[in-house]
Amino acid sequence: PFDVLIVGGGPAGAAAAVYAARKGIRVGVAAERFGGQTNDTMAIENYISVLETDGPKFALALEAQVRHYDVDIMNLQRADRIVPAPTPGGLVAVHMANGGVLHSRSVIVSTGARWRNVNVPGEAEYKNKGVAYCPHCDGPLFKGKRVAVIGGGNSGIEAAIDLAGIVQHVTVIEFADALKADAVLVNKLKSLANVTIHVNAQTTQITGDGQKVNGISYKDRVSSEIHHVELEGVFVQIGLVPNTEFLKGTLELSKFGEIVVDAKCHTSLPGVFAAGDVTTVPYKQIVIAAGEGSKAALSAFDYLIRQPVD
Ligand code: FAD
């Protein structure tokens, strides 16, 4: 059995692996895709001490650092169930989709999250070529340009306010008949001169010139007319979904499906810790996920040294 088994190999899982391995204990990482969401990122310009890198390079560097230590990396492995230890301090079982079962004295869940797609023509084609999901990450890439934000909930309106300070113009496109964000945010948005809001608007297509985005089309759901707006960027803000489907009924989850953790990354199950985008910790960013992964490993180590000797 492992002392620490990490499920998920993104920035949170990689940081947890490095911190745990440096304690000289038995560490394993089971991950579907090492590097996680960073594989899908073009430019990363906000990881402190790294002026600029790209996602695939960053993902390779994560794996190389973990491989530098004596960590058992199990790639292309998907967990589909966690079974709590039968007795306090006993072994937690992680069941894999391929039928295998891994046992560990402690487990760190760092399975991350995924952005919900709008699923219209052009979205996949122009991902990272004008289609973006994270205003903190990619907002500055659109400095002085025109963008749309799809989604009028809190994250969409926060993104629109944020972007309005950087870009030339923001078009907000909301499917429902009103913006759903908090009134204080909606009022702030409406006070901005370079923002246009369309409600009852269904995005139908993200258009491009073959290389990058050049516009967005939406249907007015009242008149059924199709409109087209010329612009350079589209931020899709219709939800971030935590990868916790396999944990329902095992760990306490928030109403958004995030694993509820305390400041030390404890979950509702003793011996099971969680870190990164999969948790209730706010602001889903690489540097934050890495910090949380380090904390989870230190908490797991603290848990292990407090187990009575048998
Ligand atoms: P993830 O990176 O999501 O990693 C999750 C890991 O768990 C992966 O290895 C995955 O394969 C694995 N996994 C999932 N389910 C299972 C399972 N059941 N069993 C086993 N393994 C599983 N942040 C920034 O700070 N700067 C940026 O510039 C930036 N740009 C971004 C651009 C894009 C397009 C996207 C999508 C995100 C961007 N982010 C950026 C956000 C950043 O990538 C995430 O905050 C960060 O990767 C979260 O790390 P994590 O380890 O918590 O999860």
Automatic annotation (TrEMBL):
Chain sites annotated for binding FAD: 3-18, 267-277
Statement: the UniProt record of this protein carries the keyword Ligase: no
Required co-factors: FAD
Record flagged with keyword NADP: yes
EC number(s) stated in the UniProt entry for this protein: 1.8.1.-
Keywords, in A-Z order: Disulfide bond, FAD, Flavoprotein, NAD, NADP, Oxidoreductase, Redox-active center
Annotated FAD/NAD(P)-binding domain residues: 2-293
Covalent S-S links between cysteines: C134-C137
GO annotation, biological process: response to reactive oxygen species
Cellular component aspect of the GO annotation: cytosol; protein-containing complex
Highest taxon in the source lineage: Bacteria
Binding site for NAD(+): 146-160
GO molecular-function terms, A-Z: flavin adenine dinucleotide binding; NAD binding; NADH-dependent peroxiredoxin activity; oxidoreductase activity, acting on a sulfur group of donors, NAD(P) as acceptor
Subunit structure: Homodimer.
Protein name according to UniProt: Alkyl hydroperoxide reductase subunit F
Gene designation: ahpF
Residues of the full protein shown: 210 to 519 of 531
